[in-house]
Amino acid sequence: MQTKLLGKQTVIFKHRPTIISTYTVSGPKEKDSLFSPYFDLILENDDWEMDSYEKAERKMMEHTIFCAIERAGLHQNQVDALICGDLMNQIISSSFAARKFDTTYIGLFGACSTMAETLAVGACLVDGGYFNNVACATCSHFSTAERQFRYPLELGNQRPPTSQWTVTGSGCAILSSSGIGPQISMATFGKVTDYGVVDVNNMGAAMAPAAMNTLISHFNDTYTTPNDYDLIITGDLGKLGSEILIDLMENKGYKLGQNYIDCGHAIFNKNQHTQQGGSGCGCSALLFNSYFMKCLKEKKYKKILFMATGALLSPTSSFQGESVPSIAHAIVIENVNQ
Amino acid sequence: MQTKLLGKQTVIFKHRPTIISTYTVSGPKEKDSLFSPYFDLILENDDWEMDSYEKAERKMMEHTIFCAIERAGLHQNQVDALICGDLMNQIISSSFAARKFDTTYIGLFGACSTMAETLAVGACLVDGGYFNNVACATCSHFSTAERQFRYPLELGNQRPPTSQWTVTGSGCAILSSSGIGPQISMATFGKVTDYGVVDVNNMGAAMAPAAMNTLISHFNDTYTTPNDYDLIITGDLGKLGSEILIDLMENKGYKLGQNYIDCGHAIFNKNQHTQQGGSGCGCSALLFNSYFMKCLKEKKYKKILFMATGALLSPTSSFQGESVPSIAHAIVIENVNQ
């Protein structure tokens, strides 16, 4: 066997797939993010001259994948698979974007954990020799998510203090069996965790236990601690959710310190009135594929753990009185001397 | 590298994952199917004593996975991953079922191609040595799909002649790196194909071109023809869709003859008034994991190609005037002497 199954949840990669390029597109509200200087394209209008928000979201996805492939110096026919997912019912942003590419397509659904899920699955498929180059991508859009998951936009509902703001953005990473760039050395797949949170406006609290489970499994499987990583990044727990994660981890004997950051907590500034911060697949996709990848490439960080969390609910499940099952998938990216 | 990438779309497995067990649950209408003697459990009521059809669908999924694991002689903690998907928004049948298992979970979305998609991805992950045992599962339910994708059940709409009937059923296959059973030798991943069909009541016509593309890619990649297979099974093209596929293939110089069968066309009998036949993830999952697996195990067939097709639309995309992009994934299962 080529790779070793360290524990029940973590796999290590012998042929460490390389992230040879990334690309990001953000919406206009995200322009005021501290991280916006690192986004590749910032839209001036969140409809991007399309006649629906759903079509705008899909256009973001298409553009992001196109540009990531181009930046990698590849022709489209050199990309063996698109591995994508998003928040839309039947992941239409991904599937409709995929018809623009003459490439095999593997659709995933992991809600806001999608960026990490696509990278973890993609890394297995490249490491195992099944594909040479794969594009891992996801996206989200405030206006499509809001009207699908919550209320019509025109209603102008008040937002509860525990809510988060779905990020309009997309990110794509090209994984390759060769080339230069940071490498994915491990992946820890998550288990579905449900602590009984039923408040659909408190996703951070629902997802924090899933984040804790995956983090602890990762540390146990790999005999590491938080101190072994220059940076630990979570997806979109938001301010409250990431504070809950810090507390939960402390109860289990792990201290998440200065080397811990949550994309949802960090993406918007305090004047943007997003309550607990950002959410959506696009949140971690945007920051991971822009600022954090830049830091890795510039050797600011040597080894980071990137874990995106997802709340696996639907409006139907909530209407039927269900709680919110959640999941978190993690990957480790290392910067080797090249 | 452990495996060889034959073409752009087909991978072959060096450590051919074994299908060590399968299990199926069907709804009451499916009891009148010719294949029902091979289903493991047939429900008497399609709500299965749950207070919503969605919860009944989820219960089918849970039960199917539980029983497939048990039949494999495994404890739950010996299963390394659940690889699942379904038709529901945010694949809630899969994700909510997964919280009942202490196992990592990889959610996929491929519409009605899901059974083949989970087996193809699962086979890569087992062949590559990342996991020892994985459960690949999917399900669909007439009453949840009907009200989500089409009309309220109470409306009693007439069904157009080109329509198909969503199968109530679920199927699970346990793939293992060891053990006895038919083995997956290859997988051909599909590309998203869109011939511009906008009639959401004619899924067979929308999916047939995707089926043709994947079949031809498979034959080209592997230097085979339809005659090299004892049986070629498609998912749920239905009567009309499978006739279109036969025509399309004939135009390309391939004759699909007596060794070709479509699960959607075959599952219901003519007196069941399903127009073009069955559809839904559960359609091919039900027949593949019952009758066809039994035939393989009894050495009636030595080598079969199983290809499930999916229509990647959502009601939102159709309301916005979009056509129906489709996909087909295929796997080859071989019965080696053991």
Count all strands of chain A and give the number: 14
Number of helices of chain A: 9
What characterizes the major β-sheet of chain A?
A: 6 strands, mixed
Derived from helix and strand composition plus strand pairing, the structural class of chain A reads alpha/beta
| Interface with most residues | A-B, 65 and 65 residues
Low-confidence stretches of chain A: none
Task: Describe what is shown at a glance.
By secondary structure, chain A is an alpha/beta fold. The first copy, chain A, has helices at residues 53-71, 92-98, 114-127, 142-149, 203-222, 238-251, 263-267, 281-297, 315-319; strands at residues 10-12, 18-26, 41-42, 81-86, 104-107, 133-140, 165-166, 169-176, 183-188, 231-234, 260-262, 278-279, 303-311, 326-334. Chain A has nine helices and 14 strands.
How would you describe this protein?
The first copy, chain A, has 338 residues and is of the alpha/beta class. Chain A is built from nine helices and 14 strands. In chain A, α1 crosses α2 and α5 packs across α6. At the A-B interface, α2, β5, α3 and α9 of A face β1, α2, β6, α3 and α9 of B.
Helices and strands in order:
Two copies of one chain form a homodimer.
Chain A: E1 10-12, E2 18-26, E3 41-42, H1 53-71, E4 81-86, H2 92-98, E5 104-107, H3 114-127, E6 133-140, H4 142-149, E7 165-166, E8 169-176, E9 183-188, H5 203-222, E10 231-234, H6 238-251, E11 260-262, H7 263-267, E12 278-279, H8 281-297, E13 303-311, H9 315-319, E14 326-334
Parallel strand pairs in A: 2-3, 4-5, 4-6, 7-12, 10-11, 10-13
Antiparallel strand pairs in A: 1-9, 2-8, 6-8, 9-14, 13-14
